[in-house]
Amino acid sequence: MPSSISNDDFGVATAADTVLIERTLPGPIERVWAYLTESDKRSTWLASGEMELHAGGRVDMEFRNSELTENDEAPPQKYAQYAGPSQMHGRIIACDPPRLLEYSWGEADSDSQVRFELTPRGKDVQLVVTHSRLATRDDMTSVAAGWHTHLGILADRLAGRTPPGFWATHTRVEAEYEKRIPRE
């Protein structure tokens, strides 16, 4: 049964260039860490690719968003270039297994950064994702909807549920983020 989206699932803009999204996930923390860092597990919810888990280490990701879920819709026209494989390369900024992972989202100095913080909560894990240095409000709404959708798939995978379609979900939540993220 697919997860439903509640108001508590939506991320928030914490600064003009930053979005923060939290999820409570089935643990233990080492399992969630593996889904963040191991290519075969990460490919089931985000992207495949290797990570050198030390400061300065390389991050290589290959996204296949149209292959993440079954029974999906085609991507909206503005994301058509992401229907097939797309690449992202970055560098590890901080790595403290299994509690903290931060890396650049791209290799240029102006590219954004994503930070994952994991905290055990009994049998569950609190995951906080902070994506910062986003250049525009459009980037923030797109990134917020992307993380929202990807993290929903992660939660479903960890709970043994079949996630709803990536693009169908992304389209729906991006429209909601358009309303929620403040205009300058």
From TrEMBL:
Q: Residues of the signal sequence?
A: none
| Stated name of the protein | SRPBCC family protein
Family, similarity comment: Belongs to the AHA1 family.
Q: Which organism is it from?
A: Lysobacter arenosi
Q: Which InterPro entries match?
A: ASHA1/2-like_C, START-like_dom_sf
Q: Where is the Activator of Hsp90 ATPase homologue 1/2-like C-terminal domain?
A: 28-158
